[in-house]
Design a protein that fits this description.
Chain A: InterPro entries: DNA-dir_RNA_pol_su2 (IPR015712), DNA-dir_RNAP_su2_dom (IPR007120), DNA-dir_RNAP_su2_hyb_sf (IPR037033), RNA_pol_bsu_CS (IPR007121), RNA_pol_bsu_protrusion (IPR007644), RNA_pol_Rpb2_2 (IPR007642), RNA_pol_Rpb2_2_sf (IPR037034), RNA_pol_Rpb2_3 (IPR007645). Chain A: Component of the RNA polymerase III (Pol III) complex consisting of 17 subunits. Chain A: Pfam families: RNA_pol_Rpb2_1, RNA_pol_Rpb2_2, RNA_pol_Rpb2_3, RNA_pol_Rpb2_4, RNA_pol_Rpb2_5, RNA_pol_Rpb2_6, RNA_pol_Rpb2_7. Chain A: Keywords: DNA-directed RNA polymerase, Metal-binding, Nucleotidyltransferase, Nucleus, Transcription, Transferase, Zinc, Zinc-finger. Chain A: Its EC number is 2.7.7.6. The structure holds two protein chains of two kinds. Chain A is an alpha+beta fold. Chain A contains 29 helices and 53 strands. Chain A folds into six domains: 233 residues, Rna Polymerase Beta Subunit, Chain: C,domain 2 (Alpha-Beta Complex), CATH 3.90.1100.10; 151 residues, RNA polymerase Rpb2, domain 2 (Dna-directed Rna Polymerase Ii 140kd Polypeptide, Chain: B, domain 3, Alpha-Beta Complex); 162 residues, Hypothetical Protein Ta0175, Chain: A, domain 2 (Alpha-Beta Complex); 219 residues, Beta Barrel (Dna-directed Rna Polymerase Ii 140kd Polypeptide, Chain: B, Domain 6), CATH 2.40.270; 104 residues, OB fold (Dihydrolipoamide Acetyltransferase, E2P) (Beta Barrel); 81 residues, Alpha-Beta Complex (DCoH-like), CATH 3.90.1800. In chain A, strands 19, 25, 26, 27, 28 and 29 form a six-stranded mixed beta sheet that branches. In chain A, α9 packs across α12. Chain A is globular and about 100 Å long. The N terminus of chain A is likely disordered. In chain B, a hairpin with a 2-residue loop joins β7 and β8. Chain B is of the alpha+beta class. In chain B, strands 1, 2, 3, 4, 5, 6, 7, 8 and 9 form a nine-stranded mixed beta sheet that branches. Chain B starts with 9 loop residues before the first strand and ends with a helix. Helix content of chain B is 23%, strand content 22%. Chain B has one domain. The chains are: A alpha+beta, B alpha+beta. Chains A and B meet through α10, α11, α16, β20 and α17 of A and β8, α2 and α4 of B.
Chain lengths: 1143, 266
């Protein structure tokens, strides 16, 4: 509220004429509030975004990777030993990216924009400190470069990190650009967030009809990934694992883990519950039937079933030990003799299965967001880097061995000399993976394609939308509804509106506005803390009392039990709120499982909420005042214990109030702002809570296609294709989200005055009527910028491509094709290019493939770049530079200025799209009392079925804003109230409902109905007629079939398809059919032998060896092709000819 | 854990030279690790003890820094016989592997009831003892305590072992049977001369050292010899006295304040 006052005051001073209109009777839509928290708490949101930003999850993840994970990888692969020389070792001591050990500042990197322009990779060197032996000496060496790491923009290794607007401007960067992507070979690449089922957690599923219950756990560590199942089969329980040949009875597994007595097995799995005991008892028989009584027998039994291939032969017992210790439940690796931890884990899985057998409702939901983890750029690159680093070390070791093997070397071997040989592998491996999106890791047999995408720069919002996108691993073709459905647990975490339509519907999601994705946190200190807080260690608890109390699980693994779960959880939370442990560690109780779960793993989505204690919000008005004054920042709210992060699981353990009046004694938290259920894209919609839900989804898709401003550096960019709006306007009806994501600074649309009425009949099917004068004034005008790249190659024989000058005619004037060329053979900036003209006059040497010695005098063949398009373009920029590999790089940017024309697509922000149906002279359009003529006339039939009430309210709020000289808010679940807006209209002499009396522009009479009339924000979408219009009389044909090519880009024909053919047949227009399908397509004259019915050529039948019965006829070339292909398969299609002139 | 599993207190001066003193667990008044737990409330775990008033303040003594205390948990001993010392089975032998910290205790079987003597003499080769076996697990921050003269004496616990029955005789019989089988299965076909290729291996062959993790631990355990220890009961009073004496010899003084302690915790 304070905020809004501050904003409005300068406005009032400026517009004196509007002064009286602006007297604060209504502007204070919040004036009734006292300065309490209720309405002001939303100020926490900008504070959050200031700290976190919209793409913080990408940056956090990458920062974690380069700062923490990289060091862990180095530590895990620390030593290189030689097989040949036992004395030799090389040890990695430290690793850094982009900074030398003694340097005070980061290395200078080529700025990102230069990388974009020069097709380079924005990367920083990876330095390692190594320690190794040379002869008898141990040598330390610092800052050895082992490769280059692509750097995520605005991460802490980026030169843009923490830089202000001024520095950004100096580096040709847009200060509003969120970063979070990579630049590889000049293209901007995003690693999309991947959604997966959480690792190292037990998931229980059941099929009630088939009476199958299974608990599965996907174990994932740095070394291993495997999946273990505990399944039921004929009501008996077995353990299943890929590397064990058959299912092993569960009691045998437990015996192998050292739980030898049946009593103890029963205690571990069932506790004192007699119904569980009844269900489980049968399994005990299973083991005794097999005659397995001791641990050793059980281990040998399992060992005999193991099917892993090993280099080293192990005894059956050893195989069994290995299987239990490391293979099964691989994330709990037993290094010593005590299998108790593992036994308990398996027993817990079994218990969950027994629980589900007793009650089929005790299963987990795969689609529940709490069971999902998000994999971000950092984790993916970390996997890739570890793979590459291991390969690098292997290669390095091989080359060391090779040298050390030689018995008498002249001098001491220095391993450092050969380290740089392989460094290119890491660089190119990283580059290739990011630029192709193919993540192939041999270690885990992982082969994933399409991990990275080119950052869409269609508009600011489309780039932003891409950074918050989450793609799931589910197969798109499978017809399952579960993973696609909107989950209640998505509330506040994933946007409820933003998902594509069609096959990826519900599988591709978007983050909500105020979310954070966690990174991995250390487990050990938390474990210790739990014991300090009174958790009884699992190794000390006897099996009988295991299930008496609540179990404490740390990242899915049982670590102890507690008698006082409520106390324990509240103490733990207290420590978190006081900042003693990381704010992203979650803890919650699950009374069904009698368990307290603590999660420290990465990839959980969480969001901040205001803590409520004793029925009072901990955040008070005073706090918010301090926040606005800048004395407090968001992180202080965390430290003071006013706000905390909750993940989905912990949310389920809390009572969250939406607003302050909703608080009752049992409430534990309060929302910061309800509109944060929506994401960045859906946040653009004004009054979305008044719209039919799918309309909001449609707008989310269309908002990304809207043409607007892209970035402050848009005129400096040379992208493959860029659409820019010439006069973008910020919307009259804004939302809080629009301000937060700076959409008002880089908008994509214009405020059009819209009349909702019928006009001319050219407005059927949502078509719009456009005012010609509005278009003349610049409405909907946009610009396309298209890039052409040419590389001047150098060839091995020292020849290279050249740029020729322009050719002139006898008068010394350039020929028409070369008209826009300058003397240097490149198009000149500002010149107009017509179709057929040349703008890069490149020539290639004809002798490029010859050797240096046999070289003849260089001759050049012209390979000019010719402009081909229906409409002329202008040359906007010409750039000549040198790329990474020292070849000259030429980029020419062509610009086209486009005014709206018939068929161009427009849309409002409510999923209401339409094409321009007619452009009408302003004089013929209706006008109001004030002489206002609409820019757009929209047909009212668009409303009843679409139910986009938000659009109507937008119109009224917009109109009120125009009269008031203010920008109104249409924020979700809030915004300017309709009553207030109507009041403004009434006070300004308008109808409360936004309807005006209009006069016909044709007759001058007033129209019979009042017309709903006012401003609505309209977006111009990228689909434009100019890019789509296409016709062909004659043109290229496909080589194989000799039929016309397909598609506009290949100047293709328009297909008369099967259904059209049916129509023509039904109509009986046989000659039309013949003309369309053969004569205008692939008519071909063949010579057929009447005797044998096969085709011959040049008047000769090859099979009959005569020219006697040859007849000429026209058939489609495709038919001829078919006959020949059949012949090649030993099928002889024989044509029987009839004389058409027969009676 | 406290009520169920009785503590046998083993006090060993050294790993090898053992000086045992053990007491029936029933005599220990407040056993278990209660230093950080707060008061023990009976098993209805759900109720919170917020309004717990301080009834009595008991002085704490930290004693026996140089005692090495192992706690045994008998996983299969019924809860009922917990305090009746007489019903605890007699221990005839105790063995220990120091490096791997593996315990084995022998108890004679009750041959008067439910004991098939015929079978024993035939198939099972005089199996008249039950062996309990357990692996000691290090326990940091766990203390055993007893009360004497209204004072609590805490002794750090070195290791805790859960003892479970170990049927060596079954494994032995199985092993024997397997050998017999393979002997009987030697058919003429198997007895054909075979070419055996052997290669000389260097001492530090990587193949040998490749055993890692649990396999390595098992190998070490297998190769280690048991140390036979004598089992002594009823030495608790003596232990108690030595502890009391020990703690009266020196006084513990905190070197940090409350703040340091909290800092250390987290």
């Amino acid at each position: 509220m304070v905020d809004s006052k501050v904003k409005k005051q300068p406005h009032i001073k400026k517009d004196d004429t509007f002064q009286d209109l602006l007297q604060p009777v209504y502007k204070g839509k919040k004036l009734t509030d006292d300065v309490s928290t209720a309405e002001d708490k939303w100020n926490l949101l900008p504070a959050f975004l200031k700290v976190k930003g919209l793409v913080k999850q990408h940056l956090d993840s990458f920062n974690y990777f380069v700062d923490v994970d990289l060091k862990k990888i180095i530590k895990a692969n620390q030593l290189i030993l030689s097989d040949v020389d036992p004395e030799f070792y090389l040890k990695y001591v430290d690793i850094r990216v982009g900074q030398r050990s003694n340097a005070s500042s980061k290395d200078y990197l080529t700025p990102p924009h230069e990388c974009r322009l020069r097709d380079m990779t924005y990367s920083a060197p990876i330095y390692v400190d190594i320690e190794y032996t040379r002869g008898r000496n141990i040598i330390m060496h610092k800052d050895v470069e082992i490769g280059r790491m692509p750097i995520m923009l605005r991460s802490n290794k980026c030169i843009l990190h923490n830089s202000d607007e001024r520095t950004m401007a100096r580096l040709d960067e847009c200060p509003l650009d969120p970063g979070g992507y990579f630049i590889v070979n000049g293209t901007e690449k995003v690693i999309l967030v991947q959604e997966q089922l959480s690792k190292n957690r037990i998931i229980v599923e059941a099929d009630e009809k088939k009476a199958i219950v299974q608990a599965s756990v996907t174990s994932s560590t740095h070394e291993r990934k495997s999946k273990t199942y505990v399944v039921t089969k004929n009501d008996k329980i077995y353990l299943k694992h890929n590397s064990i040949a058959e299912e092993v009875p569960i009691v045998v597994v437990l015996k192998a883990c050292g739980i030898v007595s049946d009593l103890e097995v029963m205690q571990l799995v069932c506790g004192n519950d007699s119904s569980y005991q009844d269900i489980f008892a049968v399994n005990l028989e299973e083991a005794s039937k097999l005659g397995l009584y001791t641990q050793q027998q059980a281990l040998e039994y399992i060992g005999s079933k193991v099917k892993t291939v090993r280099r080293q032969k192990l005894s059956v017992l050893q195989e069994g030990i290995e299987a239990i210790a490391t293979t099964v439940i691989a994330h709990l690796t037993v290094a010593a003799l005590d299998f108790r931890e593992k036994a308990l884990y398996i027993a817990m899985m079994t218990r969950r299965v027994v629980m589900a057998m007793q009650n089929y409702k005790m299963v987990d939901d795969r689609d529940y967001v709490g069971n999902k983890r998000l994999e971000l750029a950092g984790q993916l690159i970390s996997l890739l880097f570890e793979d590459l680093f291991k390969k690098f070390n292997n290669d390095f070791k091989a080359s060391i061995d090779k040298v050390l093997k030689k018995p008498n070397r002249a001098m001491e071997y220095d391993a450092l000399l050969s380290i740089n040989v392989h460094s290119n592998n890491i660089t190119s491996g990283l580059n290739r993976a990011i630029s192709t999106g193919n993540w192939s890791l041999k270690r885990f047999k992982m082969e994933r394609a399409g991990v990275t995408h080119v950052l869409s720069r269609l508009s600011y919002i489309s780039a932003l939308g891409m950074m918050t996108r989450i793609s799931s691993q589910f197969e798109k073709s499978r017809k399952v509804s579960g993973p696609r459905a909107l989950q209640p647990s998505q509330f506040g975490m994933l946007c409820t509106a933003d998902t594509p339509e069609g096959e990826a519907c519900g599988l591709v999601k978007n983050l909500a506005l105020m979310t954070h994705i966690t990174t991995d946190d250390e487990e050990e200190p938390i474990k210790k803390l739990c014991f300090i807080l009174g958790v009884e260690d699992i190794t000390l608890i006897d099996s009988a009392s295991l299930h008496l109390h609540y179990g404490v699980y740390l990242n899915g693994t049982l670590i102890g039990t507690t008698k006082f779960p409520v106390k324990f959880v509240s103490q733990f939370r207290h420590l978190r709120r006081s900042g003693k442990i990381s704010e992203f560690i979650s803890i919650y109780t699950n009374s069904h499982h009698k368990a307290v779960h603590i999660a420290t793993d990465g990839g959980r989505i969480c969001r901040p909420l205001i803590i409520v204690s004793n029925g009072k919000s901990r955040v008070t008005g005073d706090h918010l005042k301090e926040l606005l004054k800048g004395k407090l920042v968001f992180d202080d709210f965390l430290k003071l214990g006013l706000v905390e992060y909750l993940d989905v699981n912990e949310e389920n353990d809390s009572f969250i109030a939406l607003y302050e009046p909703d608080i009752t004694p049992e409430i534990t938290h309060m929302e910061i702002e309800p509109f944060t259920v929506l994401g960045a894209c859906a946040g653009l919609i004004p009054y979305p809570h008044h719209n039919q839900s799918p309309r909001n989804t449609y707008q989310c898709a269309m908002g990304k296609q809207a043409i607007g401003a892209i970035a402050y550096n848009q005129f400096k960019r040379i992208d493959t294709l860029l659409y820019l709006m010439i006069y973008p306007q910020q919307p009259m009806v804004k939302t809080k989200t629009i301000e937060l994501i700076d959409y008002d600074k880089l908008p994509a649309g214009q405020n059009a005055t819209v009349a909702i009425m019928s006009y001319s009949g050219y407005d059927i099917e949502d078509a719009l009527v456009l005012n010609k004068s509005s278009i003349d004034r610049g409405f909907g005008r946009c610009e396309t910028r298209r890039k052409t790249t040419a590389v001047l190659k150098r060839y091995p024989n020292h020849t290279q491509d050249i740029i020729g000058g322009m050719r002139v005619n006898e008068n010394g004037e350039p020929i028409w094709q070369h008209k826009s060329l300058g003397p240097d053979g490149l198009g000149e900036v500002g010149m107009k290019l017509n179709s057929g003209q040349i703008y890069i006059n490149k020539s290639v040497p004809t002798n490029a493939s010859e050797g240096v010695l046999t070289q003849t005098q260089s001759q050049y063949r012209e390979t000019p770049v010719i402009y081909r398009a229906p409409e002329p373009s202008h040359i906007d920029q010409v750039m000549m530079s040198v790329s990474d590999n020292d070849q000259a790089l030429i980029k020419v940017l062509l610009r086209q200025n486009r005014r709206p024309e018939l068929g161009d697509k427009f849309s409002s922000r409510h999923g209401q799209k339409g094409v321009c149906g007619i452009i009408v002279q302003q004089e013929d359009m209706p006008f109001s009392d004030q002489g206002v003529v609409p820019d757009i006339i929209m047909n009212p039939h668009g409303f009843p079925s679409r139910m986009t009430v938000g659009k109507m309210i937008e119109l009224i709020s917009g109109k009120a804003g125009v009269m008031n000289g203010s920008l109104e808010y249409g924020t979700c679940f809030g915004g300017s109230k309709l009553e207030d807006m109507s009041q403004i209209l009434v006070d300004n002499g308008f109808n409360y409902s936004g309807k005006d009396m209009l006069y016909s522009g044709v007759t001058g009479e007033c129209l019979q109905a009042y017309i709903f009339f006012g401003p609505i924000y309209y977006q111009k979408l990228k689909h434009m007629v100019l890019d789509k219009m296409h016709a062909r009389a004659r043109g290229p044909r496909a080589v194989l079939t000799r039929q016309p090519t397909e598609g506009r880009s290949r100047d293709g024909g328009l297909r008369l398809g099967e259904m059209e053919r049916d129509c023509v047949i039904a109509y009986g227009a046989s000659q039309l059919l013949l003309e369309r399908l053969m004569i205008s397509s692939d008519a071909f004259e063949v010579e057929v032998c009447e005797k044998c019915g096969l085709m011959g050529y040049s008047g000769w039948c090859t099979s009959c060896r005569s020219a006697e019965h040859i007849n000429k006829m026209s058939i489609p070339y495709a038919a001829k092709l078919l006959f020949q292909e059949l012949l090649s398969m030993n099928i002889a299609p024989r044509l029987k000819l009839e004389d058409i002139f027969q009676a | 854990m406290s009520a169920k599993s009785e503590n046998r207190l083993f006090v060993t001066e050294d790993e090898d030279v053992a000086l045992e003193s053990s007491v029936p667990g029933g005599q220990i008044d407040a056993e278990g690790d209660i230093d950080l737990r707060g008061e023990e409330v009976d098993n209805n775990g759900d109720d919170e003890d917020n309004d717990d008033a301080v009834i009595q303040e008991i002085p704490l003594n930290l004693a026996g820094q140089n005692e090495i205390l192992h706690i045994f948990q008998y996983a299969n001993k019924p809860k009922k016989i917990g305090r009746r010392a007489a019903e605890h089975p007699y221990i005839t032998g105790a063995r220990y592997k120091g490096t791997s910290s593996v315990w084995e205790l022998d108890t004679p079987l009750d041959e008067t009831a439910f004991y098939n003597k015929d079978k024993n003499e035939g198939e099972w080769k005089d199996a008249n003892t039950q062996t309990l076996r357990g692996v000691g697990v290090g326990s940091e921050g766990q203390y055993a305590a007893f009360v004497a003269d209204g004072q609590v004496y805490l002794t750090p616990v070195e290791k805790i072992a859960q003892l479970r029955p170990y049927f060596k005789y079954i494994d032995d019989v199985g092993q024997q049977r397997k050998q017999d089988d393979s002997k009987n299965a030697t058919t003429p076909a198997n007895q054909k001369a075979q070419v055996v290729t052997m290669s000389v291996r260097s001492v530090n062959d990587p193949v040998q050292s490749r055993l890692a993790g649990s396999l390595l631990a098992h190998k070490i355990e297998e190769e280690e010899e048991f140390v036979d220890l004598a089992w002594v009961e009823g030495a608790f009073e003596q232990f108690k006295e030595s502890m009391v004496a020990d703690s009266s010899n020196h006084e513990l003084r905190p070197i940090g304040d409350e703040h340091d302690y909290l800092e250390n915790l987290v």
